[in-house]
Design brief:
- It is built from eleven helices and 54 strands.
- Strand 52 and strand 53 form a beta hairpin.
- Helix 3 runs antiparallel to helix 10.
- The longest helix has 21 residues.
- The chain is globular and about 105 Å long.
- The two termini are 26 Å apart.
Length: 863
């Protein structure tokens, strides 16, 4: 259709002027053609969704404290044989489960082998049913991970045949805790689909069918070194925890295999202090179409785990397909902290350790889980090492095979990655993967205070996969306080020079500041002038290596030596006054349990199920101008010491989010601080600068065993500031030489809430200076001007330089933020007039050149 329209535009204006009838006929044909096309055209996605710049934390943290057992409980013993007259004795575990009532304990003789599938049944009434080994005294205490050497003290449940599980659940089974049990195959020749199947990924189509309140505690779940096991644990359940367990030998020939995967269960999930070894993905959320429509696994805690792949698999026969260690295809509100994530190489994919990419898995753009998303992910205090690539983001699931660019999923958005150590990320792992890959429009991505030790290839690759060759923008990108080696090309996008050229096209409005890019060549002119460090942001590689305590010892595995030495020019040089790069001491403390196999501080051998206490929590000022200071005192008596604290904030209202009733609050994670080592009492504070409003503030305080104390408080914060003189600079007006324009500048907070609006008029160079009366903070600038589409970009009001506004796209004459047939009709009505609004190119006459500009942006939408 546009081929016909463009051909019509090429009719010479001189001939049109000579024949008014011909001109009218052509214009009516254009209008009719556009209307026909409009009625049959499917709108493209409207661009990256607006969302908070920070990631929402899980709304639920599961409490896995071992339940108190009633002295009058039934204890049902499962043994190889029962004596005559022995009560509550069973030779069948299934019979014991069938007879059990909530509150019962089922004790299985250690060393006994039971043939599955064992089914957890739906029961009525409250209370847990505990199913455990008879030899708990020989197993690690609660809060400590089991391993293969503990198998002798466990009973064994085996998967009996091809694609038959060892453990399954009945619909709506609930309140089961399985402790100290080995799950494996009956023999190596058996091909097993799922070893432990909690819920169903097939016929489970309603939330009422989903099993809930299930805990795998100190269990050993594994396959055989030389045979197939597709999934060790599948979570098609809710309120489910896997803690202190050992999961290994999860691999299969010719298919993907996972250690833990969640497909058809909504969560919450707690995956804490486990060893997880699998060939394709160690932990995967999503990857198949949930049978429950609209289901997104939510409220997920992944903490203190050791995720690894056996290096012997690189050359093994049979060959297992290797992809990623941790992948999110459908998940929201996720906290990944204190984990060790390692070993990935070129095989089934490029060897990237952490992948964030929504997949509807239906095989086409419009079928399957079109609601799939990967949003609100917080990844902090982890060690990620030994792989070809560190991070990959794909914003939407696009299906290029159908020739369309429309999204087949929701968007990757709100990802906060801070204070992580990524090292030995290298082409030595047989791949050309970049350190970080972003494609297909992810939004609101923050990387702050991360240390990258990388070599070869590109640091950040921004990729366009759109069929029309346009750039896929990443809006809301923040790169701050990170350290890395520049390597070959630094920040690179397809078809553009590295650095500013790439960032201007792919990441308009990005914050890029206080980042180290160590390079032996001169690169400073290629990157934003806002990139300011304690010394040069572009030291030589040797100079940068000399900033660490001991670089050679660090890369050899002594993690503490990645800290900056006392003489480094980059200490306390961050935007927040902290050292550039990661806080290595905090990461070492957070990952101690992952390395030691203990979720109690990495050395404490006692069981700790006691929650820390927030002894006091105050917020000041209760009213008045900001910033707001939140001060807390926390204590811990469980023996595993205090570990960290988080500050959270919610918008208060008069009904469901107020002190005494926080059920309707939507909490936003603001900051995390690490506790000093080995303390049972700790006083500290946070500082926050919110826009005007009434808020609830709260703090989560964690101890070394993962127990959580929480305290809310209410505060009325009326935040103001003195007038700020700030300048904007519009880069270009599409189709015009002059950059003079009159419009309105909206200031939006990090959640895209309107703070204030200011009229402006730029000079011919596109510059204007405004007096802003809003709090100093990170904001979004939204430009509204006729006849241009809305343009939004991020800015930091702490910075005083001119804020760059990308090119304003023209054609939105009626200001509904889309260029369509209505604008065409308005433009047509002004044909050959001097109307200033419709004269899109500013040459004094509305003619075919203006229609051509409108044509370029047909169905474009403002951001």
């Amino acid at each position: 259709m546009f081929t016909i329209i463009k051909a019509m535009f090429k009719v010479k204006e001189t001939k049109i002027k000579q024949n008014i009838g011909l001109r009218k006929a052509i214009h009516w044909a254009l209008i009719c053609a556009c209307l026909v096309w409009f009625l049959n055209f499917q709108l493209p996605p409207s661009g990256p969704a607006r969302a908070a710049a920070t990631a929402a934390l899980p709304q639920v943290f599961l409490d896995t404290t071992y339940p108190a057992l009633s002295a009058s409980r039934n204890i049902r013993n499962v043994k190889p044989s029962c004596s005559s007259g022995e009560t509550l004795c069973y030779t069948s575990l299934q019979s014991a489960i069938n007879d059990a009532v909530p509150g019962d304990e089922i004790v299985i003789t250690a060393g006994m082998t039971i043939t599955g599938p064992i089914t957890l049944k739906h029961k009525t009434g409250g209370g847990w049913i505990i199913i455990r080994s008879s030899n708990m005294s020989a197993l690690p205490a609660a809060g400590h991970r089991v391993g293969p050497s503990d198998a002798a003290a466990m009973p064994k449940i085996v998967a009996p045949g091809s694609n038959v599980s060892a453990l399954v659940t009945e619909d709506n089974a609930d309140n089961y805790r399985l402790v100290g049990i080995e799950f494996t195959k009956v023999n190596p020749s058996v091909v097993t689909g799922v070893m432990v199947q909690l819920g169903r990924s097939d016929g489970q189509t309603s939330y009422s069918q989903v099993p809930k309140n299930l805990i795998l505690d100190r269990d050993y779940i594994h396959g055989d070194p030389a045979s197939d096991l597709k999934r060790c644990v599948e979570l098609d359940s809710s309120y489910t925890s896997i803690i202190d367990s050992y999961i290994s030998e999860c691999h299969v020939v010719g298919q993907d295999a996972q250690g833990i995967t969640a497909l058809n269960g909504q969560g919450p999930f707690k995956i804490v202090d486990n060893y997880v070894e699998a060939s394709t993905e160690n932990i995967l959320f999503g990857g198949d179409v949930p049978r429950i429509s609209g289901l997104v696994p939510s409220d997920i805690e992944v903490r203190g785990n050791y995720l690894t792949k056996d290096l012997a698999w690189k050359d093994t026969t049979p060959h297992w397909a290797v992809k990623n260690d941790l992948e999110f295809k459908n998940a929201q509100r996720v906290l990944v902290t204190g984990n060790i994530i390692e070993n990935d190489w070129l095989d089934g994919q490029t060897g990237t350790l952490i992948v964030i990419t929504p997949r509807n898995s239906g095989g086409c753009r419009t079928c399957g889980a079109t609601w799939a998303t990967a949003s609100d992910l917080t990844i902090t205090d982890n060690i990620v090492r030994h792989g070809a690539g560190a991070l990959e983001f794909q914003g939407y699931d696009y299906y290029s095979s159908d020739g369309l660019d429309s999204a087949g999923s929701l968007q990757v958005k709100n990802v906060y990655i801070a204070n992580n150590l990524f090292y030995d990320i290298s082409r030595d792992w047989d791949a050309k993967a970049p350190l970080i890959l972003m494609s297909d429009q992810p939004a609101n991505i923050t990387l702050d205070h991360n240390t990258f030790i990388n070599s070869g290839g590109n640091n950040l690759t921004l990729d366009s996969s759109r069929s029309d060759g346009t750039y896929d923008t990443v809006l809301g990108l923040t790169l701050s306080n990170n350290t890395m080696f520049h390597t070959s090309y630094g920040v690179m996008g397809g078809g553009l020079a590295e650095g500013n050229s790439t960032m201007n096209a792919y990441t308009p409005g990005a914050v890029f500041t206080h980042n180290i890019l160590a390079s032996d060549t001169s690169i400073s002119s290629r990157y934003p002038s806002a990139n300011i460090c304690g010394a040069t942001c572009y030291p030589t590689e040797a100079t940068w290596e000399s900033q660490f305590l001991d670089y050679n010892q660090a890369i050899a595995g002594n993690i503490s030596d990645f800290a900056l030495n006392s003489g480094s020019a980059y200490k306390n040089a961050g935007t927040d006054g902290k050292d550039l790069g990661a806080d290595i001491a905090a990461i070492s403390s957070a990952t101690a349990s992952a390395a030691a196999g203990s979720d109690s501080g990495g050395g404490n051998t006692t069981s700790d199920t006691t929650k820390p206490v927030v002894a006091s929590f105050t917020v000041a000022p209760q009213s008045g101008s900001g910033p707001v200071t939140a001060t807390f005192t926390a204590t811990d008596s469980g023996g595993s010491f205090l570990a960290s604290a988080e500050l959270l904030r919610a918008n208060a209202n008069t009904t469901s989010c107020l002190l005494g009733n926080i059920s309707g609050c939507s909490w936003t994670h603001l900051q995390t601080i690490a506790a000093p080592s080995g303390v049972n009492s700790w006083t500290s504070s946070f500082t926050d600068s919110p826009p005007a409003g009434t808020y609830l503030y709260g703090t989560h305080v964690h101890d070394g065993a993962g127990n959580i104390g929480f305290e809310p408080a209410v505060v009325s914060a009326i935040v103001g500031s003195s007038s700020l003189s700030r300048s904007i600079s519009i880069q270009s007006l599409q189709g015009k030489t002059s950059k003079a324009v009159t419009g309105t500048l909206d200031i939006l907070d990090s959640g895209h809430n309107l703070l204030n609006s200011y009229p402006f008029t730029t000079n011919a160079s596109g510059s204007a200076t405004l007096s802003l009366n809003v709090p100093i903070q990170s904001v979004f600038l939204r430009i509204r001007a006729v006849p241009y589409l809305v343009q939004t970009s991020s800015a930091d009001l702490n910075l005083t330089g001119a804020y760059s506004i990308p090119m304003l796209r023209t054609g939105d004459i009626n200001q509904d933020n889309i260029v369509n047939s209505i604008d065409f009709s308005l433009l047509n009505a002004k044909w050959f007039s001097a109307d200033a609004i419709s004269d899109l190119n500013g040459d004094g006459l509305v003619n075919s050149l203006d229609f051509s500009l409108l044509n370029q942006n047909w169905f474009a939408v403002g951001n």
